[in-house]
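Notebook, p. 212. Picked up where the previous page left off. The plan for this session was modest: take the two constructs that came back from the sequencing core last week, fold each one, and keep the raw output in the notebook itself so nobody has to go hunting through shared drives later. Recording the first one now, exactly as returned: residue sequence, then the structure token string.
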Amino acid sequence: MKAAPSVLYDEPGPKARRRIRQGSAVAYALLLAVLVAVVVRLADAGQFTAEKWDPLASPGNESFDALWNVLGTGLQRTLVAAAVAIGCSLVVGTAIGVLRLNLGRVARMPLVAAMEVVRGIPVVITIYFASRVLPDLGLTFADAPGGRFLWYLVIGLTAYNAVIIAELVRTGVESLPRGQREAALAIGLTRWQTLRLILLPQAFRVMLPSLISQIVVILKDTSLAALILGQYQELLRASNLAAQQLDNPIPMFLVTGAIYVAINWLLSKLAEYAERRGGRRERERRSASTAKGGKNPSAGERGGAKQVDLVDQTN
């Protein structure tokens, strides 16, 4: 099947395609040469010897058990920080998104301005701000579960990611057909009931893939604690300390990177599964509506069917 022509640029001709292939081949050759040079230098430094990998791969090594205990503890702290930050970001972000949707144009201007400021700040600065400014304000979290450094990390991650999630909530709600809101108001629901019972559940289904992608970002951003909160030994910090003691940074960080990749791969597969499941449910619902009507509805009839379905669900 011939591909559809692009409206953004002219389709390259034979000479242009040949130049593109030649340029790609040169770029790949240069990248391969750099990779080979790096591998040779590391091999000359002894980073690929069995001695460097034994603490990670050989159960008979005297450091094997202690090393994996340290990495396991670091992974546990990473997952705990990510889980708490994800939960707080979802709650705070949803609240901010709902507040922005319910405020008037003038009343929401200060909120929008504050959101834009936080969104424009790198997340590493929000974590640093939480760890340096909050203690001066008397918020030390000395007796908090998990230690005060965990909560500084969580507050920094929440401050940044809650704003992103609030934008996802807003765009998810605004992407829904207006007939959903109008039908809910027509049957006597208040604006808050319409948002809570009708719009938000559908918006979360729409934005679920983007939401899980943001969860992956939160998980990866927990590694910033290794740069700022040295006392909180999450996975990257634990790997760095172990690599300094065993003098095997390359094997250690390759294994650590593989752990992050595995976790994020599982989350991406969860996003794909959720997207497929949501699409299948939507197709089944439309098929059921078509079967009930006995014919394919027109555009106007589809809008009416949505309102009738909405009324049936809320009664």
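Okay, moving on. Second construct, recorded in the same format:
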Amino acid sequence: MKELRIIFMGTPDFAVASLNALVEANYNIVAVITAADKPAGRGRKLNESAVKKYALSKGLEILQPENLKNSEFLNKLESLKADLQIVVAFRMLPKQVWAMPKMGTFNLHASLLPNYRGAAPINWAIINGDTKTGVTTFFINEDIDTGAIIKQESTEISENMTAGELHDLLMNLGSKTVVETVELIQKGEINPIKQKEGIFYPAPKLNKENCRIDWNRPLKKIYNQIRGLNPYPGAWTMLQNNGQETEIKIYQGNMVIEEHDLSPGTIIVSKKQFRVAAENGFLDITDLKMAGKKRMDAISLLNGYEFHKGCNLF
């Protein structure tokens, strides 16, 4: 069987696992395409993507185009004569790129498509309280995350799982699925299935607005939002204390189902407890970060911060 010439495209850690799995399986990666180096930190030092760092360690050819429609880049891509392109956590490709290889270009997406098309599938599955998700490989076409499905693998989401934990689970599941997808393509054993039509859960980009906690919502929904945004970007709220307003990010807490007549967002504190009232109970906050401070456990905050009477989260 002819050895496949593969081009891999990806940027973050999530993509590194798939690239590594392909390298470990001895596939011929003729080039890796990743994001351009970006200045980061106070010194504005150029920061290399996780995929670039890995590719350098393996001596793979690296391309970092700013513009995917640039003729010089497209000519280089053509000269590599790839049979197949694989995309994991990269960016939207123009047709000139994804249509180039004769075997096509497939993408790994961290959901069971057609649910959670979009930028943040891992987060939204948890925010919405799902108990099951998975990964999908599909052929790229003109629209985002709508191409014919090649392979899907599912996994359970446990009740207290965070987005970070699910990310790592799907990263590993995805890397195996990518290798299995390449095997099927190479053997000519694929049977791509057109995605169903209809209305499905979306996975829009996370922003300041959809990461803010609304304390008027049911406790379970608040809890799911917090774990669905942990560790990044973090669910946030405002603290009103003694006339001062401060932003707080909440990363973890425990639900206490209990009837009460307190207004949502009311804070109850003791030496060892930071409790907030919600619609049908309380959230005992255990892990948080106040603006300008480091992330800490609630007891550390309670030992050094004074909550005044009538303080609340909003």
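Notes on construct two before I forget. DSSP finds eight helices and 18 strands in the chain.
Flagging for discussion at group meeting.
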